[in-house]
Amino acid sequence: MLEGRIMPIDHAIILHHFDESPFSEKIRLIFGLKQIAWTSVRISRIMPRPDLMPLTGGYRRTPVMQIGADVYCDTQCIMRELERRFPAPTLFPDGGEGLAWASAMWTDRSFFQNTVNLIFGSLADKVPQSFIEDREKLRGAKFDVAAMTATIPQMRDQYRAHVGWIETQLAGGGQWLCGAAPSLVDINAYMNIWYVRSSLPVADQLLAEFPKVRAWEERVRAIGHGARTEMSTAEALRIGQAATPQTSEANDPRDPNGRKVGDLVDVRPDDYGRIAVRGRIVALSGQGIAIRRHDDVAGDIVVHFPRAGFLVTPAP
Ligand SMILES: N[C@@H](CCC(=O)N[C@@H](CS)C(=O)NCC(=O)O)C(=O)O
Predict the structure, then answer these.
(1) Cα–Cα distance, 226 to 214 (Å, whole number)
(2) Residue 115: domain span
(3) Does residue 236 share a domain with residue 212?
(4) Ligand 1 pocket check: which of 56, 61, 65, 101 to mutate, most ligand atoms within 8 Å of Cβ?
């Protein structure tokens, strides 16, 4: 039985997620890789999420990590914080850290969009209307399952090309994509294989021509999810209310826009789900921004975001 690392409750690593979420699977695997004991808070696949929104200030993508009254949005930001708190084993065993971080811009954007279209186009009329309406609100655009179904041939071609890159990377006979041990690149690249595998009966057919990918997929799956215990959304909110944010103030003297601690800003994703979270800057760097907000329900919360893929604007 995996023991993991036991934390006092206000330092517990809480992941707000749902089991079918591919982005959450990345984080669950990092818990496995780093042998972390974590608390799972299962949120609904669609809005409303009344116990979570007071913690995030409106950010509504999945997953979100909470440690007391500090809330981490987006897998980039969550991974960076996990690497900082649990440096061993590292996500970069063979170096190559810069490109490993950048690999998310491939796996989370073009590869993911291609996978989403393939999955929802194939599921077609099995996609619940409530899910379609929810995702239309999130995207501010039609979630057009019929159009996705029409593009299945193109999506198959593209999915094949993306998976082909993984097969090529493994062609030298290595067990992992970037060296002798699993790294962040393996976790990122695996997400869209896992998503197809867990959603589509034709996954075997799609992956049949990629024997190295299939063997690697088994190795990644075997990493596991660390030591998981369950908690309710209400209990997680109560922990946020009782805790004090632990983030220290930090300016970034090279901030290209002269932003500084105390500035009131809006932070939002630049692709979809562009809901702004407003707060005063607590900490700034080239890779992260943390803002403090006071919420009537949750109290004082510091919300953390990555910089790549996010827009920061002065609040009016
Ligand atoms: N860039 C984000 C993307 C997260 C994302 O798009 N997650 C999907 C679920 S896997 C989502 O948020 N769907 C809408 C929702 O859950 O409300 C990240 O890395 O965390």
Answers:
(1) 22
(2) 97-222
(3) no
(4) 61
